[in-house]
Amino acid sequence: MLDKLQEALIEGRKADVETLVDQALAAGFPTSQILNEGLIAGMEKVGILFKNNEVFIPEVLVAARAMNAALTKLEPLLLKDKVEPKGVVVIGTVKGDLHDIGKNLVAMMLKGAGYKIVDLGADVPAEKFVEAAETHRAGVVALSALLTTTMIQMKSVIQAFQAAGLATPVIVGGAPLTQDYAAQIGAKGYAPDAASAVDVVRALVS
């Protein structure tokens, strides 16, 4: 049954995903097993397909929407069963940049991988990232930028973390960025795409 759930998720069949989650619960599957062996395993496969250029952003978004619908059903049960998220990720697009499609995709992929997401939205000042990281005890802070003119704000965020004495790792991503730029500004990780962001966070949180 969980194989069927994975399959429906990969194909983005939202109604089937919801039905299969209900059926798995009725059949007595533990919520943690449905989450890990159904939804997370399915989204991991979507990530691999995306990296291999076998599916593209529209398909990933459709799969992520199906997963979000399933998580809405499971979340109250996961809380009741005290199933902890793998970690907390604070995410946002930096100050001066209103683009959020890439950031939203990364947030969806991370949620699908079992992380609690604190999404600050777009045009986020450095101090808001610091405040959210402290408040939510973030394991990672993820910064997005699409404009070359706003890339510099990422350095400001990292400097704000250093000034606050916070050792929370900061990772960066966005179309104009490179691994070299990430290293220059002191970021702990760089992701060229949403699926890679999950791998980077997994390495830092574990």
Question: Which key terms come to mind for this protein?
Answer:
alpha/beta; 2 domains; Methyltransferase, Methionine Synthase (B12-binding Domains), Chain A, domain 1; 206 residues; Rossmann fold; globular
Please provide a brief summary of the model.
By secondary structure, the protein is of the alpha/beta class. The protein has 9 helices and 5 strands, in the order ααααβαβαβαβαβα.
Mind explaining what this structure looks like?
Helix 1 (2-10) packs antiparallel against helix 2. It is globular and about 50 Å long. It is an alpha/beta fold and 206 residues long. The model has no long low-confidence stretch (mean pLDDT 95). The chain folds into 2 domains: 2-80, Orthogonal Bundle (Methyltransferase, Methionine Synthase (B12-binding Domains), Chain A, domain 1), CATH 1.10.1240; 88-205, Cobalamin-binding domain (Rossmann fold, 3-Layer(aba) Sandwich), CATH 3.40.50.280. The chain has 9 helices and 5 strands. Strands 2-1-3-4-5 form a 5-stranded parallel sheet, with helices on both faces.
Order of helices and strands: HHHHEHEHEHEHEH
Distance between the termini: 29 Å
Q: Work out the oligomeric state of the chains in this entry.
A: single chain
Rounded Rg: 17 Å
What is the C-level CATH assignment of the largest domain?
A: Alpha Beta
Tally of contiguous helical segments: 9
The helix/strand class is: alpha/beta
What strand order characterises the main sheet? 2-1-3-4-5
CATH superfamily descriptor of the largest domain: Cobalamin-binding domain
Return the average pLDDT rounded to an integer: 95
CATH topology of the largest domain: Rossmann fold
As residue ranges, the low-confidence spans are: none
Named at the architecture level, the CATH assignment of the largest domain is 3-Layer(aba) Sandwich
How many discrete structural domains?
2
The outline comes out as: globular
Tell me about the largest β-sheet.
5 strands, parallel
Helix content: 55-70%
- Percent of sequence in beta strands: 5-15%
Instruction: Please tally the β strands and state the result.
Output: 5
